[in-house]
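hiii so um. not sure if this is the right channel but i have a protein structure encoded as tokens and i wanna go backwards to a sequence. like what aa goes where. can anyone help
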């Protein structure tokens, strides 16, 4: 079961229902009207659906705190979504000529709302059968040989904004203490409880206030808001010729309640004009009296039951504004000023903004090369250090021996020079030379090979010749 958004969207806007009776003699005139403006509910995005949860049966799907779908009873649940929001305006006018000469006009003095409604897709044909909506080539046919493609009925729901519905400041139709029951939050709650009655589904003419008629045993009457049924149909000719146009057939059931007090002159006039109007058989009907305020004769209703398949002369329903009556609520003014609520969808532009990223790329490349070079040099340095440590470990004694050798030679030279400076020169025989040779041999800790040994002997000979010459 998938709702058709295009069809639901076609129901948006202002609907005006009027009933008007006027006599040619006696200046008797009776008029009642209601205006309802339907607009999308922004909370519709939270909607969900379950296979066995039927909105037409006063059930609705709702997400719980755990993110799971649950089927809830509309009458006892505070919903967080709906399909549409509605604003309503009600009014009535009564002119009673001779011999009463009374004239009275009352209305809500402003728009009432928002009132949230779920457009429930109804797959029942009203006779215990199911509408065949798929495939669309084989839908249910009614008595007028029209093809019913889809059907939606109104199901009012309570939302967090329902309790804030307030009576307009200039309301003259009802008193403040009665407003909540007629058009306020209590009226919404009463409608959610009474809009679905499986026992009366096959009896469209049944009075929903029947148990309050002429008696107060069941308490005060509980007024309900207007109930709608929208059928999207196509005549047989339209199906054969392939036409895509569809028509909307509308059923409306609404009883506009009025509750005059005993001291009000309308309290005595209603019973008298009720008989005259109902006997005329023009499609307009006044029902009552119903119990209200613990008075079994106080409540009367203007019955505005309309069916576009069987139009009445006195009852009219227009999907438009009617001159002289309210048209749009303040909440819809922005749509009017913007010339409708349609949204233009434009193609993606060919030209795109160009961002110059070449400097950033160059800098990134340089940084990458520099980082790579540093890493390479670091690794080479580590390898070289490892090699030096390996060589140092294998030839360390020789290296240190050479240092000691040179150190000893230098020390011997210094010692020799100091000795030469402090001791008188004497002729040295073979003994000093041998001593030097011995010292040289003893000091030959340097392991350098034959060449190094020859160099040592030569140095000793030069030293001996120097000493001899000095002597």
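sure thing!! here u go:
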């Amino acid at each position: 079961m998938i709702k058709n958004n295009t069809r639901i969207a076609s129901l948006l806007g202002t609907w005006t229902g009027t009933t008007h009776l006027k006599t040619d003699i006696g200046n008797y005139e009776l008029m009642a009207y209601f205006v309802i403006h339907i607009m999308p509910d922004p909370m519709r995005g939270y909607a969900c659906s379950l296979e066995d949860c039927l909105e037409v049966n006063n059930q609705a799907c709702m997400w719980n705190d755990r993110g799971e779908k649950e089927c809830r009873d509309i009458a006892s649940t505070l919903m967080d979504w709906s399909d549409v929001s509605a604003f309503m305006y009600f009014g009535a006018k009564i002119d009673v000529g001779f011999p009463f000469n009374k004239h009275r006009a009352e209305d809500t003095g402003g728009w009432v709302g928002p009132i949230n409604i779920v457009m429930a897709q109804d797959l029942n044909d009203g006779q215990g059968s199911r509408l065949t909506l798929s495939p669309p080539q084989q839908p249910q046919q009614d008595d007028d040989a029209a093809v019913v493609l889809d059907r939606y009925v109104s199901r009012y729901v309570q939302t967090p904004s329902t309790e804030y519905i307030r009576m307009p400041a200039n309301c003259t139709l009802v008193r403040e203490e009665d407003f909540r029951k007629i058009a306020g939050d209590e009226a919404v709650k009463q409608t959610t409880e009474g809009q679905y009655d499986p026992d009366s589904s096959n009896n469209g003419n049944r009075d929903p206030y029947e148990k309050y008629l002429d008696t107060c045993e069941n308490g005060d009457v509980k007024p309900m808001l207007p109930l709608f049924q929208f059928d999207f149909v196509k005549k047989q000719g339209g199906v054969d010729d392939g036409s895509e146009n569809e028509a909307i057939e509308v059923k409306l059931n609404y009883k506009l309640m009025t509750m005059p007090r005993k001291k009000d002159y309308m309290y005595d006039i209603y019973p008298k004009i009720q008989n005259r109007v109902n006997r005329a058989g023009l499609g307009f009907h006044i029902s009552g009296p119903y119990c209200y305020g613990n008075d079994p004769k106080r409540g009367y209703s203007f019955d505005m039951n309309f069916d576009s398949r069987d139009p009445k002369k006195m009852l009219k329903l227009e999907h438009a504004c009617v001159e002289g009556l309210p048209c749009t609520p303040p909440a819809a003014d922005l749509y009017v000023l913007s010339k409708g609520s349609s949204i233009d969808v434009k193609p993606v532009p060919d030209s795109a903004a160009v961002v110059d990223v070449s400097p950033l790329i160059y800098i990134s490349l340089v940084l990458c090369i520099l980082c790579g070079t540093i890493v390479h040099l670091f690794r080479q340095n580590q390898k070289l250090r490892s090699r030096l440590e390996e060589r140092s470990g294998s030839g360390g004694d020789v290296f240190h021996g050479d240092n000691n050798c040179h150190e000893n030679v230098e020390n011997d030279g210094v010692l020799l020079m100091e000795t030469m400076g402090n001791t008188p020169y004497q002729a040295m025989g073979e003994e000093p030379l041998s001593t030097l040779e011995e010292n040289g041999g003893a000091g030959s800790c340097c392991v350098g090979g034959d060449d190094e040994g020859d160099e040592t002997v030569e140095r000793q000979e030069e030293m001996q010749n120097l000493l001899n010459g000095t002597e």
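oh and Confidence is low (pLDDT under 50) at residues 132-144, 238-242, 396-449.
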